[in-house]
User: Fold this.
Amino acid sequence: MASIRIAGTGSHVPERVLTNHDLEKMVDTTDEWIVQRTGIRERRIAEAHMNTSDLAEQASVRAIDAAGISPEELDLIITATITPDTCCPSASNWLQAKLGAQNAVAFDVTAACTGFIFALSVAEQYLKNGSYKNALVVGAELLSRTVDWKDRTSCILWGDAAGAAVLKNSTRGAELLSTHMHSDGAAGNNLLLPGGGSSTTPISEDSVKQGLHYLKLIHANKTFKVAVKRFAQSCEEAAAHNGCAMSDIDLIIPHQANLRIILAFAEKLRIPREKVFVNIDRYGNSSAATVPLALDQAARSGRIQPGHKVILTAFGGGLTWGSAFIHWH
Ligand SMILES: CC(C)(COP(=O)(O)OP(=O)(O)OC[C@H]1O[C@@H](n2cnc3c(N)ncnc32)[C@H](O)[C@@H]1OP(=O)(O)O)[C@@H](O)C(=O)NCCC(=O)NCCS
Assistant:
């Protein structure tokens, strides 16, 4: 039966590795502290000439190739990012031009670390109602451009990456059975990137002095606790919606914010560690890119097998959180 399918995935990370030992030379921190508190050992940083759409292009080419279609066959491109090349045009427009996907409509979705799941959900609706046939959904971030390299609490967390998936209304491929999205704007003040928005434009000497162009974590501890709760709720909602118990789920692919957050919500749900995909040690938190990067790595490495029930889940700035449920074929 035709349904919404993931026909191909792809990902890309920059070559340059920034280790915790490198960070020891930049701020007052240690490899031991970072590993214990976050699980991160290293992250990738893009070269200065690279833009978000360049990372997205590399990931997208792999996803399009895996789906066995040409860029011209794409009719929808949605990129989730909080670090677009420019506010206007969107990162998706730049990506469209680079891919030569001239038959697509292209736009961005802003939902921070939950962005890929929101973008997946938007594409799902268009494919379901028949408006479009082949959608490219991307999560891509150049977070290193927004990092305050003097702030030891936040600079250790972020990395650059991109991941992509091609969605089709088809009889073949991994079935996207549901998506769920949630937002709480009233609690959004603790994760902020003010720079570039109308509240800080035009850019002034004063706004630069205040560091408003940096991604800010305020009360990171509080966000940590909310994240654990929202990740757990999202997984429960996805499983219940599809008539599954938590024990029926073969793999959870969570947004990679902090290993302790991941382990805490897994424990809360009594999910064994081997059923949770973790790559935060190598890539850190690349916001909207972590979920599609992890999905691609899990698919290509054989960690996801035919028949597996997989939940993607994320939480992030906005606040936003949500899930996607996939039956792998
Ligand atoms: C940021 C985060 C890793 C900090 O870890 P934590 O265990 O909460 O650490 P705390 O902020 O309580 O800081 C503990 C101590 O370590 C210090 N510290 C902070 N960063 C440090 C660093 N990089 N190296 C060494 N010490 C550090 C603090 O100054 C504090 O010292 P004090 O006890 O003398 O005041 C963690 O809170 C987190 O991951 N929060 C969620 C992040 C988030 O919002 N991500 C995006 C949403 S998905």
